[in-house]
Amino acid sequence: MILSSDVFAQKKILVLHSYHQGLEWTDQISEGIRSVFPYNDKVKIFYEYLDAKRNYSEKYYDKLISLYREKAKIINFDVIIVSDNAAFNFILEYGEELYPKTPIVFCGVNNFNSNFLVNKEDICGIVENADHRKIIDLILKLHPNLNELIIINDQTLTGKNIQEELKVVLKDYKNKIEYEIWDTFTLNDLQNRLISLDQNDVIYLLVFNRDRAGNFISYNQGIDIIKSVSKNPIYGAWDFYLGKGILGGKLISAQAQGKEAALMAKKIINGQQDFREKIVFDKGSNFYFDYLELKKYNITENDLPAGSRIVNQPDSFFKKNNRYLLWGLAFLIFIILILIIIYYLKNKEKEKLDKLNLELEQKVKQRTRELEKMTITDELTDLFNRRHILDLLEIEIKKASRYNRNLSVIMIDIDFFKKVNDNHGHQFGDKVLKILSDILQQNTRNIDFVGRYGGEEFLIILPETDLDQAYLVAEKLRKTVKETQISGLESGITISCGAAQFEDDLGHQLIKRADDLLYKAKAKGRDRVEI
Questions:
Q1: Per-residue pLDDT tens for 378-423?
Q2: Residue 246 in contact with residue 235, Cβ under 8 Å?
Q3: Is the pLDDT of residue 3 over 70?
Q4: How far is residue 158 CA from its own chain's centroid?
Q5: How far is 11 from 176, CA to CA, in rounded Å?
Q6: Among 511, 479, 508, CA closest to 495
Q7: Which residues pair with residue 109 across a beta bridge?
Q8: 3-state SS string over 481-521?
Q9: Cα separation, 291 vs 305, whole angstroms
């Protein structure tokens, strides 16, 4: 069989993705590219995935570059499309070696610097530049009682680049809003923080694909984790969160970027691309909102920017019942006019009543929060009381069992505390307990739980901590306590500690093992840690 010259003239495009197939952002970029290059015999597209969100070690990249060196020997490409920063950085470093003189089109690149393209004449593309300023202005408009803007981001390459862009914008809001950037957390830590948010806090969700422990989190999982514990409104800058829980934002579309990059590649193949105007900045074309979220937070369409688009919007009542409503329209207008007059007459009295009810409701909520704190807090030390620390232990044991995670506890007792009370009085003893409580809180992590177990005994719960790590924590606390000078005590105080690791036993069994080790420490002379 003789092959026609058309087969050999077939154009070949390499699409190099930063992330993995199945990630919604990546798949939508591919869809945008395919909208320009449908399946045919004239253009053949090859896909490669760096999988940078799930694999990011130096060892992995060393093996990856070796693989691509071998693949590059097989096919010569007419153009290469790269998506997102990892692939962009990869092609800047290795492109000339692997694919010499091959034109490059990029998309999805954040924190772009024109110096990246110095002495590179054959690169063009789309810079992804989220319009943080317009999104923040929108939040301030729709939430005039904003308490704090909580920015959730991660430490992936994309997350770091986006955060650098955002920091430039936030400088202009220094005296206008209070904000926090949460970019280093475990999933458990994030959920604990979200639970404690004020009702007037607003969340700005950026990149959420990896936690501090290195766990990969899909877009669906990320938004579900936040929505499961938080009732606060969420805004975003990318359309893959739309319809899944965010209220809205000025959204960037992966599919639109993929299409734009493919159109540039098509011009290159046809010899039409002008590289003098080679950089396009994508800030997102429109504001998008979720009707269900707007309804939840009492935001109307009139409050939104002109031209906003709304998803999940149901058919209007008038559209479904138009034929019947026309007959009763005149009668309804008459009734409405009467109701308006009645409403106007009663409105002033109602406003006074609403104001009184609001003030009462706020006082009740404040008192409720105070009572809730009292039920879980030890009055003297401000630590968790015995009942609540035991409840927390049961919760952590379930998590450790379900997710196969480490969990340890430390039982602590003040040595010769009875002598302190006998020689200096109970008020002085209370002062010593408070000092020790402060030391325990200041020298443990945010995800740890510290409680007063009873008298001079304290219990510390250490999630995601094995026995060796628990020993180091206990030893640090023991040394810190011993080195602390207490006015009125010549020699200060010491503590004895027993540390035990969860081994599929019950809460009271775990505490007993730690308690037995505590008394073993006392039997061996006190001021020591036993494991």
A1: 999 999 999 999 999 999 999 999 999 999 999 999 999 999 999 9
A2: yes
A3: no
A4: 13
A5: 54
A6: 479
A7: 127
A8: HHHCCCCCCCCCCCEEEEEEECCCCCHHHHHHHHHHHHHHH
A9: 14
Query: Does 8 score more than 70 pLDDT?
Result: no
Token pair recorded at residue 372: 């809730």
CA dist 84 and 95 (Å) reads 15
Is residue 101 scored above 60 in pLDDT?
yes
> In which residue are the tokens 């504001």 written?
287
Would you give the distance in Å from CA 401 to the centre of its chain? 25
Is the CB of residue 133 less than 8 Å from the CB of residue 177? no
Residue 527, token pair as written in the block: 């001021």
**Nearest 5 degrees, angle CA 484-CA 486-CA 487?**
150
Q: How far apart are CA 77 and CA 503, in angstroms?
A: 57
Q: What is the 3-state secondary structure (H, E, C) of 330-354?
A: HHHHHHHHHHHHHHHHHHHHHHHHH
Between 96-110, 328-342, 449-463, the lowest mean confidence (pLDDT) is in 328-342
Distance CA 118, CA 64 (A): 26
Amino acid at 7: V
Amino acid at 468: D
With a cut of 80, say whether residue 274 has pLDDT above it: no
Of 127, 130, 124, nearest in space to 263 by CA:
124
Distance (Å, whole) CA 171 – CA 520: 56
The two three-digit tokens of residue 215, written as one number = 């766990």
- What is the predicted pLDDT for the residue at 327? 76
Report whether pLDDT(2) > 60. no
CA dist 472 and 356 (Å) reads 55
At residue 302, what are phi and psi to the nearest 5 degrees?
Answer: -70, -20
pTM: 0.55
- Count of residues making up the chain: 531
Contacts of 430 (CB under 8 A, 6+ apart): 380
**Interatomic CA distance for residues 91 and 108, integer angstroms:** 14
Angstrom distance (rounded) from CA 467 to CA 89: 41
**Structural contact between residues 432 and 418, judged by C-beta atoms closer than 8 angstroms:** no
Contacts with 46 (C-beta within 8 Å, 6 or more apart), sequence order: 12, 13, 14, 15, 75, 77
Q: How far apart are CA 379 and CA 386, in angstroms?
A: 12
β-bridge partners, 377: 384
Counting DSSP H helices and E strands in the chain, the numbers are: 17, 18
For residue 518, is pLDDT > 80?
Answer: yes
- Closest by alpha carbon to 124, among 111, 134, 112? 112
Reply yes or no on whether the pLDDT at 26 is more than 60.
yes
Position 144 pLDDT exceeds 90: yes
Instruction: Look at residues 243, 206, 245, 205 and name the one whose alpha carbon lies nearest to residue 224.
Output: 245
232-246, 249-263, 282-296: least confident range:
282-296
Q: Which residue has the tokens 């704190």?
A: 373
State how far the Cα of 288 lies from the Cα of 238, in Å rounded to an integer.
10
Contact 495, 415 (CB under 8 A): yes
* Residue listed under structure tokens 């599929």: 504
